[in-house]
Amino acid sequence: MEIKITQKQKQFLQATEQEVLFGGAAGGGKSYGQLIDALLFAVKYQKSKQLILRRTYPELEKSIIRTSLELYPREIATYQSTGHIWKFQNGSVIEFGNCDTEQDVYKYQSAEYDIIRFDELTHFTKEMYTYLISRVRGTNGYPKQVKSSTNPGGVGHHWVKERFIDPMPPLTVYNSSAGSRIFIPSKVNDNVFLMKNDPEYSKRLKNLSKQDQKALLYGDWNLDEGAYFDEFKPEVHVIKPHKLNDSDRLYMSLDYGLDMLACYWYSVDTQGYVTVYRELYQPNLIIDDAAKAIKRAMKQHELERITSIFAPKDLWNRRQETGKSVMQRFAELGIYLERVSNGREAGWYEVKRYLRPQGDVFGNNRPKLQIFNTCRNLIRTLPAVRHDDKNPNDIANTPHELTHAPDALRYFCDGLPLPAEPLLDNKTNMLSFDDEMEEFNDFNGF
Ligand SMILES: Nc1ncnc2c1ncn2[C@@H]1O[C@H](COP(=O)(O)OP(=O)(O)O)[C@@H](O)[C@H]1O
Ligand SMILES: [Mg+2]
User: Fold this and answer.
1) What is the pLDDT of residues 305-315, one digit of tens each?
2) What does the pLDDT read at residue 431?
3) CA 1/CA 72 separation, integer angstroms
4) Quick check: 380 and 428 in contact, CB under 8 A?
5) Which pTM was predicted?
6) pLDDT tens for residues 78-88?
7) Can you spell out the DSSP letters for 375-440?
8) Which domains does the chain have, with CATH numbers?
9) How far is the CA of 136 from the centre of ligand 1 (A)?
10) Are residues 53 and 122 in contact, defined by beta-carbon separation less than 8 angstroms?
11) In principle, which of 19, 102, 118, 270 could form an S-S bond with 148, CB 3.0–4.6 Å?
């Protein structure tokens, strides 16, 4: 069997890092590279086990399984379509698997692989990836790797970018506490085979929307034109935790549903500058547990200092089972919500106003709102939400998971929070506040 590969495919085959991403334009030869790499590994290491994943079986069947049927030599391996598995004469296997829902990861709970390969990695969630890569293990002494291929875009665009693109330049090894990583970029013209056999391919891609062209034709990872909050910049808005001013006014806001409690704490200074200083982001909490989790996150005297806890008006709806609203139950548990009821668009506009950099009295060009880097989900989802296709003034409601934290932030911005009052009587007020804040900062590890 004679195999010809592209220069980039060769780099992918030779990469020895624990996590490798082959990413870029569609047609760059990534999936084909995966199949060749898997084949060579299976032949070289007898009784080795590999898993090739996509979210669904139809996606596998249409693409990578079909190509493997054309490519793999029947003299040394047979394909069993019921188990979606190639079995090699030397005992090696290459299995095709899917993982469509968060629950699907448990299908692989007791499995062990030498190599796991994600094709179209950005279609997967970070949770799926981190769970599944824990299945790479074994005592046979063979290399253990996670090798992925993908185009930019897709639900996982942001976490994949964060893991493989942002920390280091392409083709440069990044060593993290979780192991080594490398990103190998690919472009359509890297794939000499496609360029020769289908020279019109890249012209056809030019019919796509600007955004899709960027992702699929150029393999560009900066797709932020579609981002709703284009004013959000991690280097401007995300800051290290620091000690809060004891004179600041404190607020909270929350979005509550059974799918997610997203709760944020804000401190506002006398100039109206806001710091988002704490996040509580937890799914599957019934109301009582949600209220308990909120109280556990702070001390009683901090709760007493909070001016308002902004919440959406649907929490005022009476629930059939109990005859009470979420708001009422929270109040019974000592958490008093304040309703914000402006329209969504006006609310998003307020969030944008807070994010926009503006000069302060000291001549600093900082935005009205900054976020402690501990608020992981807010930082993750703010740049990820997109414009709604039908109403560009609103954000897209899918994937729904991305909307909880931005919604909670919207309730705060929409609630017209007030700046802190300047402390006139420094001596008396400052002293008592100081002690309290010392304790508060200790408690929060600032
Ligand atoms: N080394 C190669 N030899 C022959 N054909 C190749 C090679 N690499 C890629 N191709 C072909 O080029 C096309 C695009 O490759 P593919 O791997 O599907 O790209 P990607 O996954 O990056 O979108 C496919 O038809 C594939 O079979
Ligand atoms: Mg592909």
Assistant:
1) 999 999 999 99
2) 40
3) 9
4) no
5) 0.58
6) 999 999 999 99
7) -HHHHHHTTT-BB-SS-TTSB---SGGGGHHHHHHHHHHHT-PPPPPP-S-IIIIIHHHHHHHHHH
8) 7-225 (3.40.50.300), 234-444 (3.30.420.280)
9) 26
10) no
11) 118
Q: Which residues pair with 79 in a beta bridge?
A: 86
Residue pair 202/188 in contact by the 8 Å Cβ criterion: yes
Q: Are 309 and 251 in contact (CB under 8 A)?
A: yes
DSSP 215-274: IIIS--S--GGGBS-TT--HHHHEE---PPPTT-EEEEEEEE-SS-EEEEEEEE-TT--E
- Residue matched to tokens 């668009």: 345
**Helix (H) / strand (E) containing 295:** helix 287-296
Q: Which amino acid would we find at residue 431?
A: L
For 171, 318, 336, the CA distances from 339, given in Å and listed in that order, are: 51, 14, 10
Pocket lining for ligand 1, CB < 6 angstroms: 4-6, 9, 26-32, 67, 191, 193-194
**In Å, what is the CA distance from 264 to each residue of 225, 282, 312, 384, 413?**
27, 12, 14, 18, 12
Q: Residue 33 Cα, ligand 2 centroid: separation in angstroms?
A: 9
Type of residue found at 169: P
Q: What share of the chain is helix, strand, coil (3-state, %, to 5)?
A: 40, 25, 40
Residue 151 to residue 104: CA distance in whole angstroms? 23
Q: What is the pLDDT of residues 278-289, one digit of tens each?
A: 999 999 999 999
* Ligand 1 atom with the shortest distance to the CA of 25: 22
Residues 6+ positions from 178 with CB-CB distance below 8 Å: none
- Cα angle 252, 238, 218 (rounded to 5 degrees) comes to 125
